[in-house]
Structures are given as structure tokens and as C-alpha cells.
Design goal:
Elements (H helix, E strand, L loop, with lengths): L20 H25 L54 E2 L22 E6 L10 H17 L9 E3 L5 E3 L17 E6 L10 H18 L6 E3 L11 H11 L4 H9 L6
Parallel strand pairs: 1-4, 2-5, 2-6, 3-5
Antiparallel strand pairs: 3-4
Length: 277
């Protein structure tokens, strides 16, 4: 894939202007974001106290949008996935569906392939949150920066690239992250043949938006059909390792959508019922 010419980002490029109140506040904000990212990168992959999950509410109903996550006019949004997307098991691992924003849109840097193992096949899928505060805005520019900063943190861990294969923002955009032909780095001791999806936000503290949940269900259904992954092998991080990830609110939604009458099960029942086994 031809990489675009890198563009400078004033939020990521080192600058040395005279100190003003605005620049000082900006510096504090950035430092706080960087510290929260560093903490979250540890929290998602290590042991954490599990909070008691609430069983209330109607099974299968999405959690209402959290008002502090709402963004008024996010732009631009790629074509949303639908239940009628074309799925081919013969596609090479380098192929991505049309509803996914290509990696080249947010970085011109490739993975350090010598540090990664090849993905020899996909037979399971794992869902994460990024555990980062402050709350993601859902704007296109904010999602670009968030991907770049997560990748920087993962590279600082000595990894080949950002650890997840796909990312979903609060506005429902689906982003390509690590190329699928490379094994991910998202569940310790469980990365072989495991497709990793991260949803932006800390879902111990906030609730996922309806847009992000719709896109997550459709991306999961796409991955299940393309790779023949049964619903019994669609996991959350905490179901494979002792961690709070993907947060109690997203965990509740994953429990609901995989239930017999949940949205993911309903999609799969109408397209590939054999995967409900």
C-alpha cells in the first residue's frame, strides 16, 4: 500500500513557543492524556480488580448513550457496516472490508515486522476497551490522535506496532489498526489466531455509545463469517485473562449481544446460523 506523505500534527509535534496561559493549559491537558494512556495500557493487560457486574435491565437492550460522550457533528464517517455486507473466506488477510478506514489514513509508518509473528489463521476474536480517560470526543481528528498515541505507547513496550487489529470510535467509525497478516499483541499468552478489536473509552467509568455498539456488532459478525469463528469463540479480554478490560459497561453489552436474543446472535442467525453453535 502506498503510504501518504506524513502531515505535521500540532498536538503531536514538539514546539517551543513562548509560554502563555493557553499553551500552559494545553501542555497540562496533553500531559494528563499521556499519563492516562500510559496507565491504561498497563491496566488493560495486567491483573485488575473486577467490579461486580449489574444484572439489571432488559437483556439485549443497548446502554443509552452517555451524554458526555456525545459529539454534535462528527465528520467524516465511512460507510457503516450492514447486515448485508459481502463476506468472502477467500480474501487474503491483507484485505479489509469497505466500511473500515484504512490504516494509511492515520499513520504513514508501517509495523516492525521483524518483531511480530505471522497470523497463520484466525479462529477467535477478542474485544477490548482502551481504558483511556479523558472521554473520547468522537471527532475524526481526536480518533486519529488517539490511534497514534496508543500506537506510540505500544511501540514503547517493545511491540511491533499497535496491538489491536481494529478500533472503533464513539461515532461508530471502524479503523484498521495492526495489519491482519500479523499476530496481535492484545491478550497475553492468547494472541495466536486471535483477532483483536478495541473500542475507544474507559467502560468502567462511562457507557458505550449506540453508534459504537452497532459498529462493534457488525464488525464481529463480519469477522465471524469471514473466518468461520463461532459465537462461542467471541471473547472479551477478561474472559481470557484476569483483567477489568473491557470495563463493566462494555462487558454487560457483550453478554447481552451474544445471548440467544441479542443483536449479534440475531445477525448471525439470519446469515450464518451454523456459527451459533
Amino acid at each position: 500500500m502506498t503510504q501518504p506523505t506524513p502531515q505535521s500534527d500540532p498536538d503531536l509535534t514538539h514546539q517551543t513557543p513562548s509560554v502563555t496561559r493557553r499553551s500552559a493549559l494545553s501542555s497540562v491537558a496533553k500531559t494528563g492524556l499521556a499519563l492516562s494512556i500510559a496507565g491504561s495500557l498497563i491496566g488493560c493487560s495486567s491483573s485488575a480488580q473486577k467490579r461486580v457486574q449489574s444484572k439489571g435491565g432488559s437483556l439485549g437492550d443497548p446502554i443509552p448513550e452517555d451524554p458526555i460522550v456525545h459529539s454534535s457533528t462528527p465528520s467524516p464517517i465511512q460507510t457503516r457496516p450492514s447486515t448485508t455486507h459481502s463476506v468472502s473466506s477467500n480474501d487474503s488477510l491483507s484485505a479489509i472490508p469497505s466500511f473500515v478506514i484504512p490504516r494509511a489514513k492515520w499513520t504513514s509508518s508501517g509495523p516492525k515486522r521483524w518483531l511480530a509473528d505471522p497470523m497463520t489463521g484466525i479462529n477467535r476474536i477478542t474485544v477490548h476497551h482502551d481504558a483511556i480517560m479523558p472521554v473520547p470526543s468522537g471527532t475524526y481528528a481526536d480518533s486519529l490522535r488517539r490511534l497514534q498515541l496508543i500506537r506510540k505507547g505500544h511501540l514503547n513496550n517493545g511491540w511491533a506496532d499497535i496491538g489491536y487489529h481494529f478500533a472503533i470510535d464513539p461515532s461508530g467509525r471502524v479503523w484498521q489498526a495492526r495489519p491482519l497478516e500479523l499476530q496481535g499483541a492484545h491478550v497475553k499468552d492468547n494472541n495466536p489466531s486471535n483477532l483483536g478489536i478495541v473500542v475507544f473509552g474507559n467502560y468502567e467509568q462511562i457507557r458505550p455509545t449506540s453508534a459504537s455498539l452497532r459498529s462493534l456488532d457488525q464488525l464481529l459478525s463480519y469477522g465471524m463469517q469471514r473466518f468461520g469463528v463461532p459465537i462461542s469463540r467471541v471473547y472479551t479480554h477478561r474472559e481470557l485473562r484476569p483483567t477489568a478490560c473491557p470495563g463493566q459497561n462494555l462487558q454487560a453489552q457483550m453478554n447481552a449481544t451474544r445471548s440467544s436474543n441479542g443483536r449479534l446472535s440475531t445477525i448471525i442467525r439470519s446469515t450464518s446460523p451454523v456459527l451459533l453453535a
